[in-house]
Amino acid sequence: MKFIDRVKIHIKAGKGGDGITAFRREKYVPLGGPAGGDGGRGGNVIFEVDTGKTTLLDLRYQKKVIAENGGNGKVKKMHGADGTDTIVKVPQGTIVKDAGTGAIIADLTRPGQQAIIAKAGRGGRGNFHFKSSRNSAPQYSERGEPGEEKDVQVELKLLADAGLVGFPSVGKSTLLSVVSKARPEIAEYHFTTISPNLGMVQVPDGRSFVMADLPGLIEGASQGKGLGHQFLRHIERCRVIIHVIDMGANDGRDPIEDYEIINKELAEYEYRLMERPQIVVANKMDLENAAENLKRFKAKYPDIDVFETTTIIDEGLDAVLYRTADLLAVTPEFPIFNEDDTEATGVLYKFEEERPQFFVHNLGNGQWLVDGDGIERTFQMSRIDSDEDAMRFARKMRKMGIDEALREAGCQDGDVVTICKVEFQFVE
Ligand SMILES: Nc1nc2c(ncn2[C@@H]2O[C@H](COP(=O)(O)OP(=O)(O)OP(=O)(O)O)[C@@H](O)[C@H]2O)c(=O)[nH]1
Ligand SMILES: [Mg+2]
């Protein structure tokens, strides 16, 4: 099974049901009072953390998630049925981004955590709401609000405290298998590990943390070479990096060069991984050349604390675990997003009130265009079947400040204003 950790899907929340126009029918009353019911709200699309899930595979096959529409209002002021919310179960560590802008919509890190990814439309109001002293028998009823619709990029980032990085075959999986119950595949050939493995590590003094064994990195990994790049993203969540070096230089590589290449890749990767505390592990100390190589390494990097290990016989690992736990205790979580994203950090849902309601564009020649989410929503909820409806819509626009904005922008009496493909003439 292929490890899938990035999926793009289309999400659509349910439209609110339409409000209806209806009148009470009573004996001897020719036209009873307005009694058209309200539409029900649509269903939201909600993502929920399910700790039983470890991949985004289900989503890959789904591609589209659509929630139910609300029911239309009924006679006798009866409310239409609300649409059922659609709940999508995702693994812990799932991040949902707007596929267009890259803005983060949700960061689902806690078991059971929910986030509304697409908000349902509200139901339209039935005609009895529009009764007034001037009009006791309104024909007007409102349409349901459209549900939010968007393309989202869903990504899975592992939730590990410490991550093992290094060239292929340096012994990362062996290390994890010795210090935890995880049983990753271990073999002589390169890229044995093709998807990350997680293990819960118990430090002898009782502390514990999650360690991730990641696929081996090679030169150019930050540019997409090997398997490294797609997994470098996972290191972003790790607060401590455990850099494993094959001091025995079994493969004929130079351990010092290996160490420098990996650090260069970490530095070049976008999340500034070199700013994380790093523990340097000199592994395979049982091999012939290891002591000599370590001596050279220490001569070149005298200030680095190197932990000597022989993972196959569980030698030297306790010291690594203690050091990791100590560093985790004092290392705060790193913000997981790019600096330009930070404003969106932690925002689960942007309410429509925060969005600009409309934009005014001067097309020249006395022609104007007004667009934007707010106005388009209002328009879609309004039935414009008659002059009276058009006037109602015009009043709404005035309330939203559109008239004023047009006037300020230089709109003149008699200019033509297009809103949602419908033309209006501007009059003071
Ligand atoms: N001599 C010796 N061999 C070791 C030691 N640790 C691991 N090995 C061997 O090195 C080989 C690779 O080990 P893995 O743990 O699979 O290495 P890895 O870093 O996970 O490799 P990739 O998954 O390919 O990135 C295996 O044959 C291990 O038995 C050690 O301390 N000494
Ligand atoms: Mg491995």
Describe the structure concisely for a colleague:
Helices cover 21% and strands 22% of the residues. The protein has 428 residues and is of the alpha/beta class.
Verbal overview:
The protein is an alpha/beta fold. Helices cover 21% and strands 22% of the residues. It has nine helices and 18 strands. The chain has a six-stranded mixed beta sheet, with helices on both faces. A five-stranded mixed beta sheet has the order 3-1-8-5-6. It has a four-stranded mixed beta sheet with strand order 15-16-17-18. β12 (240-246), α4 (255-268) and β13 form a beta-alpha-beta unit. The longest helix has 14 residues, at 255-268. The protein is elongated, with a radius of gyration of 31 Å. Bound molecules: guanosine-5'-triphosphate and magnesium ion. Magnesium ion binds next to α2.
